[in-house]
Amino acid sequence: MTQTPFVSTEIATQPDLWRQVSNGFAQYGGALPKPGQRVAAVGCGTSWFMAMAYAALREDNGQGETDAFAGSEFPAGRAYDVVVVISRSGTTTEVLDLIRATDVPTVAITATPGSPITELADHIILLDFADEQSVVQTRFATTTLALLRASLGEDLQQAAADAETALTLDVDELAKLEQVTYLGTRWTVGLAHEAGLKQREAASAWTEAYPAMDYRHGPIAIAQPGRGVWIFGTPPAGLLDDVTATGATIVHHPDLDPMASLVVAQRVAVAKSLALGLNPDQPRSLSRSVILD
């Protein structure tokens, strides 16, 4: 590509967007789940991974039982107080079908005014200022997660500052890795899955993602020189030594908020895509939304 991809510009806006939703949380927060409520968080693809992160964070913050599901896998009939639905386009078939089928109150977070989800959900949180031109999701997903973290009482100012640092790091060598496996614990497992998806989407690259403790139960077998193991958050005891012994490159940003490390991973995905002569804004076989007959 001769011009800067939309996705690169969108990635760079994330620190300001995180501050915006954190500082303005009061205007969004009323519809979100209250402490003690039993919550399901759902989405598809990237949105599902943000739901996974939110669910773990909410439970770890003592806010109440929270489960995360891909939209197609929501267990009809299970008792919840609120279902939080994440959908950038507001048109994804699985989440619309879920809202139609459930009697549980629904809160939808979307970037698209006037989309079908705005007519179906009980409450709407519109983050249209975080929408994207690129098919590949970056800033809508992380801005949604920033909002959800703010709803749990977190201060996102340091995360935003860390994201600014993430925008300055050199990613050229990381983009040359043949293969990367992303690892996380608790809420960062969702970030690991999202980081892997970004490289698969933008660069058609071989990536995998696992809970960090599960990595040594088989997946470590593919680690070798020229491949990477990217760790979000604090690695379990002994993991770094085990990966070092394989010769694989360890990628770890202990001084950055894990969402800022995801920003680095987004940039690596774009760099790898461009190095391969691909278009990171329009990955093959993908569209903005999956709409089924």
Automatic annotation (TrEMBL):
Cited InterPro entries: GlmS/AgaS_SIS, SIS_dom, SIS_dom_sf
UniProt protein name: Fructoselysine-6-P-deglycase FrlB-like protein
Keywords: Repeat
One of the Pfam families matching this protein, by short name: SIS
Statement: the UniProt record of this protein carries the keyword Repeat: yes
Top-level taxonomy: Bacteria, Bacillati, Actinomycetota, Actinomycetes, Propionibacteriales
Domain SIS: 29-174
Any single GO BP term: carbohydrate derivative metabolic process
Gene Ontology terms for molecular function: carbohydrate derivative binding
Keyword Mitochondrion: no
Domain of life: Bacteria
SUPFAM superfamilies, per database record: SIS domain
